[in-house]
Design a protein that fits this description.
Elements lengths: L1 H11 L5 H18 L4 H26 L8 H11 L1 H4 L13 H6 L1 H5 L10 H20 L3 H14 L17
Helix pairs in contact: 1-2, 1-4, 2-3, 3-4
Amino acid sequence: MHARRYFVKALDGGEPRAAIAIDAYQALYGIEKEARDLEPRERLRLRRERSAPIFNKLLEWVESIKDDEPPSLRFGRALNYFSNQQVPLSQFLTDGRVPIDNGVVERLHVRAALTRKNFLFAGSERGAQSAAIIFSLLGSCALCGIDPVEYLATVMPILARGVIEKDVIDLLPRNLPL
């Protein structure tokens, strides 16, 4: 999402060549839409067959022109970001379980990001840490499709009885059979 966003900003800023990258991203997302309901192994096969050539062609294009573009301009920033982040950007081509982008996680953290100034008034560093833990747990509940109220109702009594540190991982939303 970030790499694509840089190219969108460059296009909006008047750089028509950014449309090449945006078109490549549209093709990649189109393939992902087709692969949505596939098992990870089949999704990976499809990605290697159809997405990898598009990604590699985009990378080749970026590498061929990035040194000629001023890094201070939007288009130069887009090219440099893609080039510098090519390994993490290509992770979806190595594992069928990895999403093409981190949009789901970003959307889960929008509330925390939008209210970060409020965290300045958490009362203390410990209060801010506690708030961060709760936001993370609730975000994890959303990712796992778990009702956060049900999760907290299950976990709080267990925590009240006392838990040793090594057992805390068993209480994470992904590990509880709710």
